[in-house]
Write a structure and sequence with these properties.
The complex is a heterodimer of chains A (about 270) and B (about 290). Chain A is built from eleven helices and eleven strands. By secondary structure, chain A is an alpha/beta fold. In chain A, the strands form two sheets. A six-stranded mixed sheet of chain A has the order 7-8-9-4-10-11, with helices on both faces. The longest helix of chain A has 14 residues. Chain A is globular and about 55 Å long. The relative contact order of chain A is 0.17. Chain B has about 290 residues and is an all-alpha fold. Chain B has a domain of about 170 residues: MetI-like (MetI-like fold). The termini of chain B are far apart. The chains are: A alpha/beta (about 270), B mainly alpha (about 290). At the A-B interface, helix 3 and helix 7 of A face helix 7 and helix 8 of B.
Amino acid sequence: MQELLTENRAEVINEENIKFDILTNNLTVSFFGNEAISDVNVKIRSKSITAIIGPSGCGKSTLLRSINLMHDLTPGAKVTGKITIHGKDISEYDMTHVRRKVGMVFQKPNPFPTMSVYDNVVSGLTLNRKYKKSYLDEIVEICLEHAGLWEEVKDRLKISSMALSGGQQQRLCIARTLAVGPEIILLDEPTSALDPISTSKIEETLQLLKKDYTIVIVTHNMQQAARTSDFTAYFFLGKLIEHGKTRNIFTSPKEKLTEDYVTGRFG
Amino acid sequence: MKQNYYELVSRNNLLKRKSINVVMLGLCITAGFLAILPLVYIFFYTLMQGASSLNLEFFTEIPKPVGEDGGGMANAIVGTLILVGLGSAFGIPVGIFAGIYVAEYSKSFLANVIKFVTDVLSGVPSIVIGIFAYGLIVIPMQRFSALAGGFALGVLMVPTVTRITEEMLKLVPHSLREAALALGIPRWKTTLRIVLKTASGGIITGILLAIARAAGETAPLLFTSFGNSFWSSSLDGPMASIPVQIFNYAISPYEDWHRKAWAGAFVLIALVFVVSLIVRISTRKKYN
């Protein structure tokens, strides 16, 4: 108890020094006039895992996708408010630059079906310009290693990406995201289509990755949020209800709504 | 008692389901055979009718005047290849890019207009397209030309290629586009290198259909490339083609020419078949 208190106190004192990678300021996203998220102010801490939880349709994915500018292609989508990445407004960056800085892994594994495992990993690089083969070889090994897939595919890098299992495909997608050198990784329910073993492998991967990357993960699975994340943000009906240390959110939530959700009373 | 009841029901159902399965499967197989029957029949019938004219000369010689034995369709075979090549050079790129536009920017007004217009165009009789090319190219140039014929065939190919490209691109899951964009790949590269590549199998099928149709068209060539009994010297002069040659031979009163027409029909089918086969093999996907 004492430890917890002092830890909290330390956090308060150091508030000034804490590095935040992503800040949103009154972020509102609407589709054809219906607000999916409204006035969201959230700070995502650097080099840590932040979980975004909440019932279906509460705007978790919408928030995530707006950080990666994925709404630009969605018909009827309108984004207002401000998103700041590394202290700079997102609109000041070049769009492709934002997407390279902020990688994204989707709900369903989506490797490129026409490419081999190897080509998938380096696709983000080779589709933009030419690289030396030796450099690419190195990238493939490092990224697959980081994504926890290297041991399983190192002898068959040239096979079709579709020949891998769902869990392997998802880790391949993580490796592909890592290859372009992002600093932030967004994961949109990355394990919801996977079995428990693949899920735990991906969670292990995330723990290793957080040393070097800022990770934001949207999840339907509260246990997953509790297991993997350092911070948790709870959304309900498009509003950010509570955001804090994962332990606090799950053990002593400040808001009634959060408590109801994390204790399983609804959702 | 209850157990027995379920057993009875499930056994009855099983019999029923099995027999329905056999009947439907039989119908499907019959339909499949009916679908390939005309082709097989046409193939062998044309071969039989034209067999006596099918010799080396047929592929190497140009037609000889009435009364003289021998002669072939070499100029028409080459002419068809050139005309279809010209048509493809015009029709395929236009069709593919129009298809990309319609599929990837489907919300725009222009895309809907293009879609509608290509639908209408695909219903326009080929002879009308021939007249169009005649008015647009032959009259100003003051002569029949291979260029006009190629253009007419190209116009004929555009709607097929456009629609197939559009349909195939729409089948590519949105998640692949997102995956590519999320890697910081610009949209045009995403479309060309990811989406188009993923859909390439179906698009190639569409292109082959268009080529096959263009290769067999007679009407648009009648007053564009016209036909030629000699080797064509240039693209801006009249050029022979197999369909037109078949037409001319078939309406003639000479037995020998009739046989040559049959042989020409067989060669035309074989040509389309071989081209399809070559395209299929050379563009076969690395992974299936």
